[in-house]
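Table S2 (continued). Query chain:
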Amino acid sequence: MADDIQVQVCHALPDSSFLHALKVPAGTTIGQAVALSGLLQKIPGIDLAVNMVGIYGKKKPLDTVLREHDRVEVYRPLQADPKEARRRRAGSKPAKG
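Corresponding output:
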């Protein structure tokens, strides 16, 4: 059908990953595509109210309308604050000079 678009939904865990290609009707949102992909059933710990989503590495709201060949990414929560981790690494290195 001309009204369908091809998209991918993906999510990565430390020991596995989920990647599902699907055809969805034009006008489908990120939230709808995630639900249609089966990701929420396969990995029940995902909460779209908490986990951020994006398209090709750019954060987007759940109501973003998808375009042909978009890759929807469901991100995991950060384990540590990146700024704090960088401070700890910098503090453990000897000073240059």
